[in-house]
Input
Amino acid sequence: MSWVAQVRQTIGAKTVAGLTKEIGPTGRAGRADLIVFGVALGLRLWHLGSSAGADPYFTLPSVDPAFYHQRASELATGQGAVAEVFFIAPMYSWFLAGLYALVGPSMLAAKVVQSVLGALTAVLLRRTGGALFGPAAGLGAGLVWACYAPAIFYETILHSCALQSFLNVAAVFVLVGSSGSQRPLARLFVSGFLIGLSALVRPNVLLFVPLGMAFAWFAAGQTTSLRKIFGPAVFALAAAAAVAPATVHNVAAGDFVVVSSSAGINFYIGNGPSANGQFVVPEPFAPWQADHPEEQKRAFATFAESRTGRALSPSEVSGFWFRRTWEHVKKNPKSWLALLGKKALLAVGDFEPGNSRSFAESRRFSEVLQLPLPTFGWVLPFAAAALLGAGRSAWKTMPVWGMLVVYAVSLLGFFVLAHYRLTVGPFLALYAGRGAALFIDWGRRKDVAKAARGLLVV
Output
C-alpha cells in the first residue's frame, strides 16, 4: 500500500483528498511545490541513509520513542488494547500501529513515512505563506522548513512532533483558505477536525480552538450570515468530534479525561522544586523511577496515593500534582518568575534540549546535519525581522501567530524540550520566509533604512 493510503488511514480519506487537490501542481505554483517537496524529501532520505550505517542509536530508541514503538507494535498485533485511561495521548501510537499492521514493526518504514509528511509540511507552508505574504515569501517558508536541521532530525526518529507538525500546518492551511472559499463551513470543519487529531497527538493544541473560532468569526466579515453565526461552532464541534474517541475511551475506563492524564505531572516537572526549565526527573524520584512514561505513571500515582491515603483516579493524580505545584509557586514566587525567564531563554535559544536523543550529538553521524543548514537560532531572527514589514490586518494572520502564542504558552507553562519546540518551527518558518522576501524587496528598491533596521534585528 502506498504512503498516500497510509496517510488516508491515519487522518481520513476525505481530508487527504481535499489537501491533495489543494496542493496539486498548477503552473508556476506547482513547480515551486515540486522543488520544495523534492528538496525536503531528498535531504531527509539522505540523512536516513547516512545515519543508518553510522549512528549507533539508529535502531535503539529510548524513552518516548521506545514507548511509542513498543505500544504500536503491540497494537498492530492486537495485543495492546487496554481498558485504562490514556496517560500519553494515543494518536501517534495509533499512527505507528496502522503502519506496522501493513509492513510490520519497521522503524525504518516509519521514518520514511514521516520524511514524506515532513516534505508535505514544507509544501503546505509554501502554499500558506504564498496566500498570506506573497509567492516569494511562500517559497522561502517552504525552503526554510525543507532545510531546517531540527526538522530533518526529529522527523526521522520516532517522535510525535513529526505527525503533529503536519496536522497543525494542514489545519492552518485549510483555515487560512476558508476566508476566501466558496465552501467556508466545509473548510472550517476540516480545519477543526485536524486540530482535534493534533490534540490526540499532544493536547496543548486545544488552546488554539478559541483562536480558530475567532478567526472564523472575523473572516465572515461584517454580516449576520449563517457563516458568521455557525462558522465558529462548526470549527469547535469538528475539533470535539476528533477528540471524542479518546474521551469516550477514558470515560468507559472509569474517569472523565479529555485526552490524557499526564498534564499535572508534567506541570510539576516544569514548575516544581526541581525544575530547571528542561525535562528533569524531579524529587523525590530517582531518574530510573520516572523517566520512561510507564514508570513515570506508576511512580507519580503511587506517591500521590501515599500522601492522600487512598486510591486515586488518573484525573485525581493529575489534580494532586497541579495543587502541589501551585503550593510551591505560591511559596516561592520570585524563584518561579526567575524560572519563567530561564524557560524563555531556552525557548528562543539555538540549543536543542532533548531527553531521548541529542540533536548536537547526532550531528556527528549525519552528513546532512553537518551541512550549514538553518537552525532555530537563524530562523527566529529573520522571523522577527519580518515584523518590520508592512503586513495585513492582524486577524488575517491570526492562525499563524495564534499557533506561536499557543506553543509559547505551553513551553513557558511546562518545560522546554526540542521536540516540543519543533511544532513552533513551521510557523516561524512562515515569518522567516517573509523576512527573507522583505530583505530581497528592500534590496531591489534600495531602501537602505528598512534594510538597516532589519539587519539590526537579525
Remarks:
- The longest helix spans residues 107-133.
